[in-house]
Amino acid sequence: MRREDNTLFHMFLQTYQNYQDKNALIYRVLDQEFKISYAKLFDDVLVLARAFKAKKVEKGSKVMFLCDNRYEWMVTDLALISLGAISIPRGTDTPTLELEFILKHSGAHFLIVENEALHVKHEEMLNTLVLKAIFIIEAPKVHSLLSNIYSYNDILKDKVIELSEIEAFSAGKDMLDENDIFTIIYTSGTTGIPKGVMLTHKNIMYNVRELPALIALESDDLWVSILPSWHIFERACEYLSLSRGCCTVYSTIKTFAADLEQYKPTLVATVPRLWESMYTKINTTLEKKDAKKAALFKKLVALSAKYNDLQRIVTDELPRFEKEHLLMTPLRKIFASTQLFFLYPFNAFAKKKLALVKEKFGGRLRLAISGGGALPDFLDAWIDAIGIRIVNAYGMTECAPAIAGRALNCSTFSTLGLPTKDTILVIMTPGGEEAKVGEIGEIWLKGEQITPGYYENLEENEKSFTKDGFFRTGDLGKLTIKGELIITGRSKEIIVLANGENIDPTRIESTIAMLPFITDTILVGHSKKGLGALIVPDFEKLKDYVALHFDKVVHNIEQVMEDKQIVAKIKGEMNDLLQQTKGFKPFEKLQNIHFLENDFTVGEELTNTFKKKRHVIEKKYKEIIDKFIH
């Protein structure tokens, strides 16, 4: 049944009425902190919406929005929502050619950019387009006669609000419908040309309505935000926060650790890449301070992880794919309980010591949500071992983004939990049949959160939607007996060797990335006889490794690559991690490795949420790949 009040603007008005005096957002400019109440946010949104309306931004207007995290992002987003305009958001690192493609493909009528430098960067290209107006958030007054360029300073001269304007502004909700498109998000292009994902109010409000209960969200919760606001995962988290009158602190990668300690959040939402960074930072810092303490810390983590694993055997919180023999279950539980009894005092000591690590997250963190990519098993276990409850979530831009999550309604470890409410999730085999429990296939979905389609892209819509309305995710997965989801790979990322063997690169990459001198890695070998890995090293740690094992001093990557003994030993250590006893197949060993001199960077080899653009990396390093694997 269609809901008349099922839009983001209805939600915002309700929040304003309920939480006017509460803080909505906290942010810093240089060293000065600003706290924004819901009343102040409401006023700023109204004033900006009024100014946009005066410049002919109206319902259905397509507005390209190029900006990174800042208070004005949220104000602008809500102002466009209130008018029924369609935002097309991207980060400031969007290349000019990609911006040009999106502007032309979307048929955008207006453009908003963060600052003058960004406008200048794209000015030559923008001069070739016809836009009704360009708005610059951070700039002095720039408008001149016959110009269509305005700064926010130009259009926000009058900030006085009459009572009648509040009534008229609020009445604008009546012209909005849950089936209206409120945004078109162009995917970051990990597999090719960006596609414009259309999302309606109904899509996003499904998330706003159904997710808070899964994380027990309350108005006194405080979030620390670090992901790009325009990305659907972060955007949905901010809407959730707004919907319940919570407070969100805008942080940065540089200040994240300090902000966690200062603001003591109850919730954080991050991507796996940031967890990997925290894992590396904590272990590296300990190793530099005291090698013995670092070794003790690792033992405490291993002990805690073992104890947690045994507890899950007793409580049936490990994934199962087939029914066990009637006698096996009690025997397993008795054996696990016996081990728990003897490990109890040691685990209590370990947990007490590891609680000091939790303090680094502020001491009040009750949930940490990981999304925007697969969380490697070793990281999942490590975060759990130090005592942080991790919500391992699975979503897509096309689903606004929620599909499944190991939230408070599910404790089965090493899974992504159950599909969200009323989501129909099926695993389909290549033969077009529904997969059995534990059988791998493509994930197909139906639900309120799923996009009506890609903007002006008939070919992709025909490929992505079945005749009976299922959305084909392109992700591969399997289900447990209880219906929990496990992702096994992405169909478009599967490497097919020359002998026809299919390999999911993500698990191998996350496993070899456990070595301390590896910053990033990408598996290659499509149509080749064997696998290879391109490695982005932490060169300082690599130097230490070479000095320790070979008693040599290296000054650059070239010296490392020229030494066949060093390369062979490192490749050997990687292959030691890829043992059959750990579930790897014989053909999943590395034939060769190659160290890269430069890091992968956001906007080039990485998306804004640090996913690797495989097609870009493989094209960039094609010559190297062809030489080092055959």
In short:
With 630 residues, the protein is α/β, with parallel strands linked by helices.
Provide key terms for this protein.
630 residues, alpha/beta, nine-stranded mixed sheet, 26 strands, 20% strand
Mean pLDDT score: 92
**Helix- and strand-based class?**
alpha/beta
Q: What would the principal axes of the Cα set say about the shape? A: globular
Determine the number of helices (DSSP H or I, runs of at least 4 residues): 21
* Share of β-strand residues: 15-25%
How much helicity do the residues have? Answer: 40-55%
Roughly how many Å is the radius of gyration? 26 Å
Distance between the termini: 58 Å
Main pleated sheet: 9 strands, mixed
Unreliable runs:
none
Spatial strand order of the main sheet: 2-1-11-10-12-13-14-15-16
Q: What is the count of β-strands?
A: 26
